[in-house]
Amino acid sequence: MFRFWVANLQPTRISYPRSCIVKAGGTGRATQMGKTGEETGADGSMVSIADYYAGKNVLITGATGFMGKVLVEKLLRSCPEVQTLYLLVRPKAGQSMHERVSDMMKCKLFDRVREDNPDFHQKIVPISSELTQPALAISPEDVERLTSCVNIIFHCAATIRFDEPLKHALQLNVMATQQLLNLAQQMHHLQAFIHISTAYANCNRRHIDEIIYPPPVEPKKLIDSLEWMEDSIVRDITPRLIGDRPNTYTYTKALAECVVQRESSKLSIGIIRPSIVGASWQEPFPGWIDNFNGPSGVFIAAGKGILRTMRANNDAVADLIPVDVVINLTLAAGWYTAVHRPKAALVYNCTTGGINPFHWGEIEHHVMSSFKRNPLEQAFRRPNANITSNYLMNQYWILVSHKFPALIYDLYLRLSGQKPQMMRIFNRLHKAIGLLEYFSSQDWEWNSENMNMLMSHLSPEDRKTSPLRPPAAHNPTPQQDLTPQTSSGTQPHSSTKPHPSDLQRHTTPLLNQ
Ligand SMILES: CCCCCCCCCCCCCCCCCCCC(=O)SCCNC(=O)CCNC(=O)[C@H](O)C(C)(C)COP(=O)(O)OP(=O)(O)OC[C@H]1O[C@@H](n2cnc3c(N)ncnc32)[C@H](O)[C@@H]1OP(=O)(O)O
Ligand SMILES: NC(=O)C1=CN([C@@H]2O[C@H](COP(=O)(O)OP(=O)(O)OC[C@H]3O[C@@H](n4cnc5c(N)ncnc54)[C@H](OP(=O)(O)O)[C@@H]3O)[C@@H](O)[C@H]2O)C=CC1
């Protein structure tokens, strides 16, 4: 299997002349490039994001995931004239691909879309695909169909587990991305390829620009080397390979960026780097989330009275960003990439810390007071969690507030003839928070010039309906046409960075309750 991938990392490229790709474009409303570079309609007015997506065929990977679902929902709701959404989905947990998609469309997230258009499901076409398989396991008929009509690709699928074995993380995050790029190059009408990366792909640096940094290793060389290795050997050498990155996730996401960038002479590419994606701010309704990733699991464990202590720096910036804001940026980047066809891939650091800093210490305060006002059902103990940056103090509280109560509770369970379980729960919790502490103990500085630039290109209507950042009393929306920073970092970029004190703070709705 690995051998196949290696062979396919250097694909036979079918390149279409750029003019062909662009002209062939969407079947939507007639558009032309305005003098300023904005896409304008036939009447000369600026074309909105919804106008751009009208009549377009969109391919989405990872649509069953947290961010993918929100992307599908927003596209259907805000771009009602979008032609078709092709979702690459695999069967899972005994459910067929069709059952999974049909279940997904029944979920509360889609209530508003359902209200607006009860037949919205007709726009969704699931395509069977297992991304870790050769050629993404897409049938030849489906390849034919996709290559003949897709206009925009959003690549959201990934393994986001921090403890993923390197080979699997490499297969999904890097090789599948390469396979998708190969497919993209065969598409006759493709206008934009949007890759979802993470703001932490380069977390081994303190200051992160909107450029692609040199990869920690040549991806193909790594794949070649791992091909013949036993899994146990790969496991042993993983810490050496990932070096100063904390896990295989950030390492493989960095490699994926590099693989994507290498195709930027043939495809129009945008790379979105969100920081820690949390519950929705506004859309389709406030507070939607469907997973325990990142801080969400920590919050729930604290709310249930299980987690009492965690290592985190009170003063470090907690770079949380609501999922709807990330998706607004993703759709706007798709539009911008297709319309402006930047020569090099544009990277968008999708972060909040530089403009609206919020700290882990403040989060602790809001989370705890929120759970005191709105207690969770069946809590283990009354919630009372504290964060500390002191290792010894944390170890002390782990012993006193986690392990000791767990021992007592398990003893009680044993004596009452039940299976002990609390120590097992704490062991898993300790493993999970051990993996998260790297991110809660330090902070990073992300440049977000391209996000500002993108905002400056949005029509006034789009700024209202698809805000790229939560509103702030004194939040100066850049009015001027800012120069994009290219992924190679070669072009100059504007220094119109808003001052943090100009901006109002926000928290996710969960914390605002
Ligand atoms: C003290 C109180 C206040 C706190 C303030 C301070 C908070 C500090 C928090 C710091 C967090 C910092 C996080 C930074 C992350 C930045 C990373 C960059 C962002 C990204 O690019 S991508 C997203 C990042 N990825 C992740 O977050 C994934 C991390 N998770 C993992 O790697 C694995 O899940 C983990 C942690 C290794 C655990 O694996 P495992 O034990 O195998 O468990 P599963 O995840 O498979 O879950 C099994 C099962 O349990 C359910 N579950 C999980 N957590 C909870 C919970 N808290 N309560 C209830 N149930 C839970 C889970 O849904 C699974 O259920 P299934 O039914 O699906 O089996
Ligand atoms: N959540 C976050 O905080 C952040 C996420 N990101 C990035 O955003 C993107 C989306 O993340 P998120 O939505 O949170 O992740 P999820 O884990 O919720 O979703 C992952 C998606 O990838 C799909 N997928 C995984 N493996 C395969 C496979 N072998 N074949 C086909 N599909 C597969 C999953 O499908 P299935 O349902 O079948 O498993 C699912 O749809 C990722 O690229 C991630 O790196 C970046 C920064 C922060």
Overall description:
With 513 residues, this protein is an alpha/beta fold. The chain has helices spanning 2-8, 18-24, 49-53, 66-78, 97-106, 111-116, 140-149, 166-185, 219-227, 231-242, 248-261, 295-303, 323-340, 360-373, 391-415, 422-440, 449-457, 460-465, 509-512, and strands at 31-33, 39-41, 57-61, 84-89, 124-128, 152-155, 192-196, 207-208, 269-274, 276-278, 309-311, 320-322, 346-350, 386-388, 445-446. α4 links the parallel β3 (57-61) and β4. α1 (2-8) packs antiparallel against α9 (219-227). The radius of gyration is 23 Å and the shape is globular. The termini are far apart. 44% of the residues are buried. The model is unreliable at 1-38, 473-483 and 490-513 (pLDDT under 50). It binds ligand L6B7KVET and NADPH dihydro-nicotinamide-adenine-dinucleotide phosphate. Residues 62-68, 90, 92, 129-132, 156-160, 172, 196, 198, 253, 274, 276-277, 291, 293-294 line the site of NADPH dihydro-nicotinamide-adenine-dinucleotide phosphate. Residues 476-498 have a biased composition (Polar residues).
Share in helix: 40-55%
User: Largest sheet, order of strands side by side?
Assistant: 5-4-3-6-7-9-13
Report the biggest beta sheet as strand number plus sense, adding barrel if it closes.
7 strands, parallel
How many individual β-strands?
15
- Cofactors, ions, other ligands: ligand L6B7KVET, NADPH dihydro-nicotinamide-adenine-dinucleotide phosphate
What's the overall average pLDDT, rounded?
85
Gyration radius, to the nearest Å? 23 Å
Stretches with pLDDT under 50, minimum 5 residues: 1-38, 473-483, 490-513
Beta content comes to: 5-15%
Number of helices: 19
Could you say which overall geometry the principal axes of the C-alpha atoms support? globular
Distance between the termini: 50 Å
Helix/sheet category: alpha/beta
